[in-house]
Design a protein that fits this description.
Four copies of one chain form a homotetramer.
Chain A lengths: L1 E8 L5 E3 L4 E3 L5 H7 L6 E10 L6 H13 L4 E5 L5 H11 L4 E5 L9 H15 L6 E6 L2 E4 L3 E4 L4 E4 L2
Parallel strand pairs in A: 1-4, 1-5, 5-6, 6-7
Antiparallel strand pairs in A: 2-3, 7-8, 9-10
Helix pairs in contact in A: 2-3
């Protein structure tokens, strides 16, 4: 299986900087590399772009992500993204890209703090791409992979839940 | 989404017993519970049976697993199984069950030692079940979910790889 | 051995709050409890007070800590404290308390993110108290336990180093 | 502070070999290196010898350890050792070495499985050596550092406890 991963930052990637005393979005793929270390049957193409907390993203960033998607020859793409504006970026891409299977994912807790949640969300995206699915814009969070417009962040509870 | 998990033991579940000084297959779901803690959109039915290293399983155990599968009303089932004889158990079930989507999974390293690999394998199974797949006997290991007969353990390298 | 632990907060205790998206100083002892779980030969008295990032501490807080120290019948005391003002609090206590063996400790990275550093610093304090030491105000950080005035934070490098 | 660490193996160091499906005593210092990564104020000399489960050690191994101790110019020495025969090795060294401060330590659970216990035991040894102690043969386990003859393994409970 060939899969392109576009890592745009977000909580998923955050690591603690002991000198500044705070969590930062790094510009590397250390969190991702640990998750995919066991994926002996996938050829990954990994692109690290934007590297922002998604609260700091704007439509310029979304255009950059869209351009990278369009330059990718693989039709199976996972986009790692902050949880706060993943709804905006997925809606942006839906208007621009129709010939790919794009699965957004992310985490409520950094991989560097809780390996289970970040690995769950990412690996669900990968498992979903193993199936014979239609082109579309999907979101893999908290147990399910569905059309990205149907799974939304409940900010009060810190959970993604399927819209009624 | 409704999913039945049948936890039969194997390396996936092993924990260290400091008094005996060795790893043991427990009869609980502690490893699994940590993985699914973030799955807010799935109703799980969890059945813990057999609880063996898969080298110690025989056709009696495989019949027990088959019976539990047949008693399950859900058609989406994940079976956590040791890696050494998952080929035998999946072949056994293939002859007995045709009306379910059954995904076997497991781990080369216990969840208690490496959270990433066990969580990857299990979560791929769950992500695959989010797609509109056909009834069948599948195996989720090391990056892909495919028909269980096509993904085999390379004992020398400690990896599951797709058969040519 | 009888030891009183006064847990005043600081990075040592910080945990990630996924709803707020940031690290917080909790008012519990979860980090500490994990560290001392194996200490079968110590009777601990644990007091959780102040619960602040040490940048937010003032002399009122230092007086509260001093009062709790003076109310303690044990003469062996470990104080968990943020690293940014541990020099001020240890200097404050030096003027007020002379009849105890007080060892300050803390961490540059939260126990919830890196178990090794926080456990190292705390456990050095405990090992030092196992020896026949004089009353005094000590600091256990980054490999050594010495008089608190001699081990200072290098903010640029994020390390405590012995003063020349 | 100058400290020599003699790493002789034991549970402390064990890591899981996924190909063999069991825990092994490695001939490296990966467990130790993670523990001492924050010790910016200590010059360590590390010697990795014997590399055995202590149940497999005999007096030949004990003589090798004694010889290495005698060749060491540092008088502060930590010996990482399996818990099952640490009583025999410490008694052996007591007869042979009288001019050093030797602290034995180890773990009931491998560092690769539980970072807190192994780090606690080792770091207590290091904190004890920060104090002005007499030459002797000590054992750092489960909360205290005392003369090695006074702290014994309760095999039934999997704990080291001070002898009455």
């Amino acid at each position: 299986m060939n899969v392109t991963i576009i890592n745009t930052g977000g909580t998923f990637n955050k690591r603690y900087n002991p000198i500044k005393g705070q969590l930062e979005v790094p510009i590397d793929n250390i969190a991702l590399d640990k998750i995919i270390a066991s994926c002996h049957n996938v050829d990954f193409e990994i692109k690290n772009i934007v590297s922002k907390d998604s609260l700091d993203m704007d439509d310029n960033d979304r255009q950059i992500i869209t351009d990278v998607v369009n330059q990718t020859s693989n039709d199976k793409i996972i986009i790692i993204h902050g949880t706060d504006t993943v709804d905006l970026t997925s809606a942006f891409l839906r208007k621009e890209v129709t010939n790919k299977k794009i699965v957004f994912t992310g985490a409520m807790v950094p991989m560097s703090i809780d390996e289970a949640e970040a690995t769950m969300n990412f690996s669900q995206a990968l498992g979903f791409l193993s199936a014979d699915i239609k082109n579309g814009i999907y979101l893999a969070m908290h147990g399910v992979v569905v059309d990205a417009s149907k799974l939304v962040k409940n900010r009060k509870e810190g959970k993604f839940v399927i819209k009624d």
